[in-house]
User: Which sequence fits this backbone?
């Protein structure tokens, strides 16, 4: 149920697989923004890049997100984009969530790279009319980049941007798929091995 002034974070991504950086960013956002819910939403069909060969299925990525969400207070997995056909445009997702939670304050969680390209996204004005941006900074240099881009988005699109400081957690899903197993929490690694994902057996 949507209570008055409920604070909800929206954390989307391919999560292929979810890694320790995702978990750290999620925790930082919950704490800094005092979120009462954090929806972790795996993308169905990424609009701008195809999932690499050998990727986990949508259902498997959702199951791994459920595991990751269990490590973060207030977080939960959400299958909203997996239930929707076609490319997973953020504008459609936040509009749907606004209809579900009309009395809530919504934050869209973004990293530095996402913030820097945000003005090129599909219908950025629609996204900004619905929610604030929570830009996650990994250290001082990252924060300086975010502050410059946030100011540009405030000036040109009227964006409401909150910067969330997060301790540096190096790594990406790509690095995991390339062999860096330490980047994934042990619980998710067990799931990956038990399902023989990404070339890992038993």
Assistant:
């Amino acid at each position: 149920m949507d209570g008055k002034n409920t604070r909800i974070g929206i954390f989307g991504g391919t999560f292929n697989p979810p890694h320790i950086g995702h978990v750290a960013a999620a925790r930082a956002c919950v704490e800094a923004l005092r979120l009462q819910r954090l929806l972790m939403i795996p993308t169905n069909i990424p609009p701008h890049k195809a999932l690499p060969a050998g990727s986990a299925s949508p259902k498997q990525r959702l199951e791994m997100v459920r595991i990751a969400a269990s490590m973060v207070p207030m977080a939960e997995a959400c299958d909203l984009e997996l239930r929707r056909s076609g490319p997973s445009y953020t504008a459609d997702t936040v509009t749907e969530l606004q209809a579900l939670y009309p009395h809530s304050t919504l934050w869209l969680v973004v990293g530095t790279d996402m913030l820097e390209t945000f003005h090129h996204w599909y219908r950025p004005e629609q996204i900004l009319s619905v929610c604030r941006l929570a830009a996650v900074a990994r250290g001082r240099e990252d924060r300086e980049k975010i502050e410059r881009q946030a100011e540009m988005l405030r000036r040109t699109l009227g964006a409401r941007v909150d910067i969330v400081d997060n301790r540096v957690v190096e790594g990406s899903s790509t690095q995991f798929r390339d062999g860096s197993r330490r980047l994934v929490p042990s619980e998710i690694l067990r799931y990956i091995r038990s399902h023989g994902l990404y070339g890992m057996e038993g």
Summary: The chain has a mean pLDDT of 91. The chain is about 40% helix and 15% strand. Strands lie at 7-13, 37-42, 75-77, 105-110, 132-137, 161-165.
